[in-house]
Each structure stands twice: as structure tokens, then as C-alpha cells.
Amino acid sequence: MNTVIVRYGEIGTKSRQTRTWFERILINNIREALTTEEIEYKSVFAKHGRVIVRTNNAEEASKVLLRVFGIVSLSPALEVDASLDKINKTALTLFRRKKRQLNIDKPRFRVTARRITKEFPLNSIELQAKVGEFILENEESVVDLHNYDIEVGIEIMEGKAYIFTEKIKGWGGLPIGTQGKMIGLLSGKNSALAMFLMMKRGVEIIPVHIRESEESVENARKLWNILEMYNYGGKGRLIVVDTITSVKKIIREFGAKGIVKGSRKELNEEFENEIMEDKRLFSVPVYYPLVALPEDYIKDVARRIPL
User: Fold this and answer.
1) Is the pLDDT of residue 193 over 80?
2) Quick one: pLDDT at residue 282?
């Protein structure tokens, strides 16, 4: 594999000017992720609603990029010139590789093609048929459009074909750095989850722990070390303070737009009192991302991070 195709979702719904800005931040975060994890790459650029990463370490790069917010899915791919002969041969090579991985003698498969730009002479349906026919002629296999073992994907852009057999789901959301900075009050797993969900929405989190004991500080460091694996685009480092007054000072110093807390209380009088107290203490809005979220969803996110 010599390329990773990166797909985004919500970014594509923005106006052209905003989309270009978000794409630029996403590309910067991708570069930061690859550089931080010491994965060499040749180039990263946006093209026709995709971000293309050229690298000879596509599989390893994909594992890292799954932790970059804003990415809906990605595919390690082979980039070749968009000729039918090269597409056929590359598709067959990847099909055989996937067949060996699955250890299936006669796999069911389908081919899905998309001409993102239209200069290729065959339309998508014609290309799917040609490539499917070529695979059938050269490998024991069966076409099945619905219950398939292998899907060969082809995307054509500006004279290049990108061919893949995997489409790996990412976290989606927005790239960190598109929604300003907030202070995350890090005290335990719930607050770490709340911060994670705000990072997923593009917020740059400044993690702050109010010291209770040396044990609490160590626990906060461990939690932030986990979150930091997803913090590409964020520059925050854990800040340990002793009082709420210090938190207020940090809000001013960083120009933070809000506070993130991990409260999961029911919407009752006790929680209303907490909200009123937070409004009294802080000059910026306080956010409680976990309130009203389904328990199953919270547990699933905590398991996947993992916290």
C-alpha cells in the first residue's frame, strides 16, 4: 500500500470558505499525528472531498489516523495510473491478498467504483463490471452484491485510481482546533470522557486538575496520557492547581471559551444547585457533555478509548 484515503463527513457540509479552513486544520492534525508517531510520509493534501496521504507505511499510518478527530473513515490503498489494465491487475492483487488473509477458498465479493472526476472513459457501473469480470476469470470466486466476504473499492480522481479492500471507521466529529479552547476539569473517568467528547467536537482542551492528594494527581496524569493519544491539534498539557482561584486565572490566560465537567447527575434539584454554583464561580459557560447521554453509549466510548 502506498496511500491512505481519508474521508470526512461534517466538514463537507460547511460553506466553501469554512470547509477549506477545516480541511487545512485536518491536514495539519494528520501531519502532526504522523510526525509524532514517527511515521514517514511523502505528502498530505486535500482533493475532491478526500484527504490523500502518500506513504509507504499505509497500514501503520491508518492505525494512527484513526485517532484523529474529523476522520469518518479511511482506507489503506494502492494509487496507480487510471488505466483499465493497471486497475484490473491491482484489484486482483489486493483481492488475492485479502483472500489469503481470510483463508477462504471461494470468497464472495463485489466491486464498488466511484469516478470522483469524470475523465475516465468508463462510468462507475461499467468499471465495476469490467473489474469483477477480470477477478472472476483469474480467481475462484463468486459475485455477491449483498452477502460478500471481500469488497474491492475503486475511487478515480484526476487520472489516478485508488484501490482498496478495507474501509475502516473513524471517530468522525471535527478536527481539534476548529472550535476554540476550553478548560477541562480532570478529576476521574467521567470528566475524562466529557473532555474526550468535547475534543471530538473540535474543542482544544486545556486539562486542569485541582489537587486533592498526590494519588489524585497521579490518577489525573494517567487519564490525560490516554486522552493525549487523541489530542492531535491540541497543545494542552496537564496543569495541576490547588484552588478554584487558580482555575479562574488559567481561563483568562488561555482565553478559554468555557469549562468542561464530567457531571452525570439526573436533572434534579441537586444538579440545578451545581449549575447555579458553577455560574457563580466562573465567568464562562460550563458544559456537561455526559448529561442525558445513554448509559450504553458512554460505556462503549469508555471501552473503545479505553479508559
Assistant:
1) yes
2) 94
CATH number for the domain harbouring residue 146: 3.30.2130.30
34 close to 64: Cβ distance less than 8 angstroms: yes
Number of domains in the chain: 2
Identify whether residues 32 and 163 lie together within a single domain: yes
* Domain that residue 15 falls in: 1-170
Gyration radius of the chain over CA positions: 23
* The domain boundary residue, chosen from 170, 198, 225: 170
- Residues composing the chain: 307
Note whether 166 and 291 are same-domain residues: no
pLDDT of residue 270: 84
C-alpha span between 92 and 237 (Å, rounded)? 47
Asked, for residue 175, whether it belongs to a domain, the answer is no
Q: 103-107, 118-122, 221-225, 266-270: which has the minimum mean pLDDT?
A: 266-270
Answer yes or no: is pLDDT of 10 > 90: no
Name the 3-class secondary structure at 247: helix
Q: What is the pLDDT of residues 20-70, one digit of tens each?
A: 899 999 999 999 999 999 999 999 999 898 999 999 999 999 999 999 999
Name, in order, each residue with C-beta under 8 angstroms of 296's C-beta and a sequence gap of 6 or more. Answer: none
- Whether residue 176 lies inside any domain: the answer is no
- Do 22 and 89 belong together in one domain? yes
Single-letter residue type at 102: L
Among 104, 80, 101, CA closest to 91? 80
In whole angstroms, give the CA distance from residue 154 to residue 127.
Answer: 9
The alpha carbon of residue 160 and the mean position of all alpha carbons in its chain are separated, in whole angstroms, by 25
Q: Backbone phi, then psi, for 40, in 5-degree steps? A: -75, 145
* 146 and 195 together in one domain: no
